[in-house]
Automatic annotation (TrEMBL):
The keyword Disulfide bond does not apply. Gene3D superfamilies: MetI-like. It is a multi-pass membrane protein. It comes from the Bacteria. This is Nickel import system permease protein NikB. The lineage of its organism: Bacteria, Bacillati, Bacillota, Bacilli, Bacillales. The chain crosses the membrane at residues 9-27, 99-122, 134-161, 173-192, 227-253, 273-299. It comes from Brevibacillus choshinensis. Residues 95-296 form the ABC transmembrane type-1 domain. Belongs to the binding-protein-dependent transport system permease family. OppBC subfamily. Keywords: Cell membrane, Ion transport, Membrane, Nickel, Nickel transport, Transmembrane, Transmembrane helix, Transport. The complex is composed of two ATP-binding proteins (NikD and NikE), two transmembrane proteins (NikB and NikC) and a solute-binding protein (NikA). It is found in: Cell membrane.
């Protein structure tokens, strides 16, 4: 298991290098002059030339890229062109807000999606099955920015139940978390139902029922545990997508996270901040996939047996 974890962590290096090179290239080809933005009202041709040399923007593309990667390895993400502050400080200030939003959305999606999917499978073709699958279809199809605007219009502007923007306590978290979780909730519900339907048709489930085991115990202890592998996969992926999807949701709700910061800095062509945020998101996504693989061993004894056989 330790070797497996080390191999997966080693794979993180080429992934991050590839992501950084792509984003670095895109930002370099985008129109706009970051030096002019950096100087602002102090712009003069002389100051522009001096700042271009100071920031290293007069050097060839690959020289700048290798220099940037060398600094990142040492923990230096550079200085923001727009705020003139260290990039790491800006991300540290905003990253917790994004994590809180993504975790809240995932908890809501799992807490509601797994029970709904389980009940739908246990009562296939019933009214609750039809309603939950129809709601899941709407959740998958609905753009989260449109849902966010509708929630602001109805629950914030008209009814005044929740604040419509910024981060100020638990109530301000409700609408963004619901908006961000809508698609994940629908996907987890549908995957749980599909996996449970496949599991409850297995012979060992019929055997448990024939032995007189209570239906609730059959569904929860025997069927749900063995149906968890695809559900874990989807849930892990949805957490990664939630971090990425936070870009739109944070913009709609003026949430002070790195997703909103990413949108703002792309407009300003603030390359150091954009690169740092993308690298952080890619790292999080890879780590989440690693944790998902480790959870497989907990829920599936066959995987644990494979590791023991390899060890022997």
């Amino acid at each position: 298991m330790y070797k497996f974890i080390l191999r997966r962590l080693a794979m993180l290096v080429p992934v991050l290098l590839g992501v950084s090179l792509i984003v670095f290239t895109i930002m370099d080809l985008t129109p706009g002059d970051p030096v002019e933005m950096y100087l602002g009202d102090n712009y003069t041709p002389e100051a522009h030339a001096a700042m271009t040399q100071e920031l290293g923007l007069d050097r060839p593309f690959f020289v700048r890229y290798i220099h940037y990667i060398g600094n990142v390895v040492q923990g230096d993400f550079g200085i923001s062109y727009s705020t003139k502050q260290p990039v790491s400080a800006e991300i540290e200030a905003r990253f917790p807000s994004t994590i809180i939003l993504a975790i809240s959305a995932l908890i809501f999606a799992i807490a509601l999606g797994i029970p709904l999917g389980t009940i739908s499978a246990a009562k296939q073709y019933s009214a609750i099955d039809s309603v939950s699958m129809f709601a899941a279809l709407i959740g998958v199809s609905m753009p989260n920015f449109w849902l966010g605007l509708m929630l602001i219009l109805i629950l914030a502007a008209n009814l005044g139940w929740f604040p419509s923007a910024n981060f100020d306590g638990f109530k301000s978290l409700v609408l963004p978390a619901i908006t961000l979780s809508a698609s994940s909730l629908a996907i987890i519900t549908r995957m749980t139902r599909s996996s449970m339907l496949e599991t409850i048709r297995q012979d060992y489930i019929r055997t448990a029922r024939a032995k007189g085991v209570k239906e609730f115990k059959v569904i929860i202890k025997h069927a749900l545990r063995n149906a968890m592998i695809p559900i874990i996969t989807v849930s892990g992926l949805q957490f990664g997508f939630a971090i990425g999807g936070a870009v739109l949701v944070e913009t709609v709700f003026s949430w002070p996270g790195i997703g909103r910061l990413l949108v703002e800095t792309i407009k300003l062509k603030d390359t150091p901040v954009v690169l740092a945020i993308v690298l952080v998101m890619a790292t999080m996504f890879t780590i989440i996939n690693l944790v998902t693989d480790i959870l497989y061993a907990y829920f599936d004894p066959r995987i644990r047996a494979q590791y023991k056989m390899k060890k022997v």
